[in-house]
Amino acid sequence: MIDIFHDFYRGKRVLVTGHTGFKGSWLSIWLHELGAEVIGVAQDPFTERDNFVLSGIGQRIKADIRADIRDGERIKEIFRQYQPEIVFHLAAQPLVRLSYDIPVETYQTNVMGTIHILEAIRFTDSVKVGVMITTDKCTRTGNRSGDIGRTNRWADTILIPVVKVRLK
């Protein structure tokens, strides 16, 4: 494989939230291939046909952890235990139609879950980089933007002051 990153990820402890999801599983595969020690934190995959299950990446990474990002203390505990250097945050409730059925859980996951990840990063000295990845479902459709779009705009709003504080 051609390594355009020049071994940047080799041996680095990289925590990926949402590693059982579509994007998270592919990111975990690539990071693993690039030599990273991947620590995956997510809920169970939705089906046995998900990329996470079919690829078998859960058996190849350093840690495959089941946790809910709404549990801030559990997230801090995982960060303390594994001391990641890089964090990719992809965990979310991503399903637009489901967000109309479970709006509270959607907000708790997408907004408060992101806050819990940011807090864990803030209290973990080993973390040098945090990459927050949201969705493409933030645009308005007709007169409604939906809970997914609103929760991601809230998460983005939260990130602006956090980034400013960390860069000082």
What does this molecule look like?
It is a single chain. The protein is α/β, with parallel strands linked by helices. It is 48% helix and 14% strand. It is built from 7 helices and 5 strands, in the order βαβααβαβααβα. α1 links the parallel β1 (13-17) and β2 (37-42). The longest helix has 22 residues, at 146-167. The radius of gyration is 16 Å and the shape is globular. It starts with 12 loop residues before the first strand and ends with a helix. The mean pLDDT is 86.
Secondary structure topology:
Layout: E1 13-17, H1 22-33, E2 37-42, H2 51-55, H3 57-60, E3 63-66, H4 72-82, E4 86-89, H5 96-101, H6 103-122, E5 129-132, H7 146-167
Parallel strand pairs: 1-2, 1-4, 2-3, 4-5
For the biggest sheet, the summary is: 5 strands, parallel
Question: How many β-strand stretches?
Answer: 5
Structural class: alpha/beta
Gyration radius, to the nearest Å? 16 Å
Average pLDDT works out at: 86
What percentage of residues falls in helices of 4 or more residues?
Answer: 40-55%
